[in-house]
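Reopening: Tyrosine recombinase XerC still failing for me.
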Amino acid sequence: MASDHLVDFFNYLSVEKGLAKNTISAYRADLERFFHYLSINKLSFDQISSEQLTGYLAWLRGMHNTEFEIGESSIARNVISIRGYYTYLASEHKIPNPAANLKPPKIPKRLPKALTIDQVMAILNIAGDDLISVRDKALIELLYSTGARVSEVINLNAADISKVDTQEGEITTVKLKGKGGKERVVPIGSYGVSAINDYLSRSRPVLSKISTQKALFLNQRGGRLSRQTAWNIVAKSAARAGVADLVTPHSMRHSFATHLLDGGADIRVVQELLGHASVTTTQIYTLITIDRLRQSYASAHPRSK
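Support: Ran it again with your exact input. Result attached.
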């Protein structure tokens, strides 16, 4: 059975391909859904045709399953997961590969949603003065100051914050571990440093009394802060600040990149700070700046129309 090789495939993704845990979890979910589809339709993984694979994509779109509808980006990821598994089996176990020509749908580029500077300031300034609020402000300041992914921030240990002497004086940095285990060191702005120092001196000592956790950000039980809790902290802070749109930790990352480019930062520097493997990924943020310039030109120049 092809499903017997799943464990080896996931080990291959982790060890050989160096994929992150979250990416491997997505592969696992996609393949479990695919095997469920095969089971309810009495189809054999080893004998499925390319036409039947196309039928599966139609099923995902809700054409044959009204209770389950997903977007085109998720369907594209499903294609990549299935094609990856078949490719692995063809290479390692000589199993025929009906997915060789299966192509993911083309996803139109969507401009990431960035907050205005005033919105970010409102969110940062809404925090109270109690110990948990001090922690929450430090978390949001760090997300915005570094452009870190939420997974990178919740996985930080206190020792990952350090001071470095430079020709310009002492700066505070954070060591982030990104996708594929790649590490990068990112400077923290003065406001972020102040918020983190406040948290480290006031809140964390109290939270760490009930725990030996090395984690930088602790929950009220002394454990490492979860992704969901971090997400809720950002969303609730934004709601209290009167920001109407749903705001997530990734909104802070988008805003970090957009505000840097708006301020004239070099795209290669932004790429390095974000931890993007390719500058092509970073270039989508330049579209926001270009679009804003186009709108300003259209509304202000007498010969723009």
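The domain at 2-93 is CATH 1.10.150 (DNA polymerase; domain 1). If you still see a failure, please send the error message rather than a screenshot.
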